[in-house]
Amino acid sequence: MKFTTTCPHCRHPFQTEYLDSGVHDLYCPNCGRRSVLFIRKHRFETLFDLGTRALMDGYAREAVVNFAAALERCLEFYLRSALLERAAQEHRDLDAVARELGATWKLLVSQSERQLGAFAAVYLAREGRAPEFLTPQGLGADFRNRVIHRGYLPRESEVQDYAARLFALMNRLLEELGDAALQGTLMQEREYAAALEALPGDVVAVFEEHPGMFRTPRGQAEPPVVPVPGQDPAQATTQAATRPPGGSQPVNARSPNARPSANAQPLNDAAAFQAALKERGTLISELFSGKAGR
Ligand SMILES: [Zn+2]
Q1: pTM for the full model?
Q2: What is each CA distance from 212 to 42, 47, 52, 149, 188, in whole angstroms?
Q3: Separation CA 239–CA 56 (nearest Å)
Q4: Which residues have a beta carbon within 5 Å of ligand 1, which is an ion?
Q5: pLDDT at residue 156 in the model
Q6: Distance from Cα 68 to the centre of ligand 1, integer Å
């Protein structure tokens, strides 16, 4: 899937492809100069937005594949964020914890049933109650399997219902995570900081936050800007402006306001999804196509 970005050197807009890493090494088709674009978005957000775009364009079946993948990655995001939150509360070395988490995830990565099991245990440990939504009905698993594995051609209305169910569930998980979601975000920022460190000093780095259906907290309490070692001060200023928060400062404990569900609107799943679609659907459409949506 392609999206439109702007060259930081000459402001020329051009299309480029989403990369799995979120790090895009680009050469402008107009001026030929290099820049590296970091997209501040989580995988589950990108996947859900791709599903939304497909649904808006009438590709109902393709949308299901993206929505289903988005849910799986959202459960992973919850698991990682919750475990990192715990580690931060215990003042452990978050880089070391992240490495162990990565090694553990490798054992689960190719089997979604294992992932669900790990998620259930982490959810129970953090929330103190069973993840009652983790049933085939709660996850819309039968519909998903019919579409993905048995070639069922779903109607648009069925995919709307499926998307609305997953949207509500994912929003609920994000609300329950509260400030712990910042841990998942900080992890991405640290990966980006490492990639940035590895770049030659003269390459301009750009960080973009893309609009989407979710509003995962990105953190106001960002650690201070750190100059890039070995870089001359003039370039450091240019990069510092776009530098992600680095270091391993923990974002600790949930704040009392961490659960916006307390004053969330009383919308049912379908209405909540439609409201988000109305509010942000055009932005998503513009993002992926460079043209206005319908
Ligand atoms: Zn350019």
Answers
A1: 0.80
A2: 10, 10, 9, 28, 17
A3: 37
A4: 7, 9-10, 12, 28, 30-31
A5: 95
A6: 37
For the stretch 45-50, contacts whose Cβ atoms lie closer than 8 Å and that sit 24 or more positions apart, written own/partner, are 45/70, 45/212, 45/213, 45/214, 45/216, 46/18, 46/212, 47/73, 48/74, 48/166, 48/167, 48/170, 48/212, 48/213, 48/214, 49/210, 49/212, 49/213, 49/284, 49/287, 49/288, 50/1, 50/288
Q: What's 245's DSSP letter?
A: P
Distance separating alpha carbons of residues 51 and 60, to the nearest angstrom: 9
What pLDDT shows up at residue 248? 35
Instruction: Quote the pLDDT of residue 104.
Output: 97
Q: Which pLDDT tens digit goes with each residue over 202-230?
A: 899 999 988 889 988 776 444 433 334 44
Quote the strand ranges of the chain, DSSP E.
2-6, 13-17, 23-27, 34-39, 204-208
Distance of CA 261 to the CA centre of its chain: 20
Q: What is the Å distance from ligand 1's center to 231 Cα?
A: 23
**φ and ψ at 37, to 5 degrees?**
-105, 125
- In 3D, which of 110, 167, 182 has the Cα closest to residue 133? 167
Task: Kindly compute the dihedral angle of the four CA atoms of residues 149, 151, 155, 160, in this order, to the nearest 10 degrees.
Answer: 20
Q: For residues 240 and 75, is the Cβ–Cβ distance under 8 A?
A: no
Burial class of 184 by CB neighbour count within 10 A (0 to 12, 13 to 18, 19+) = buried
Look at the chain and count its residues: 294
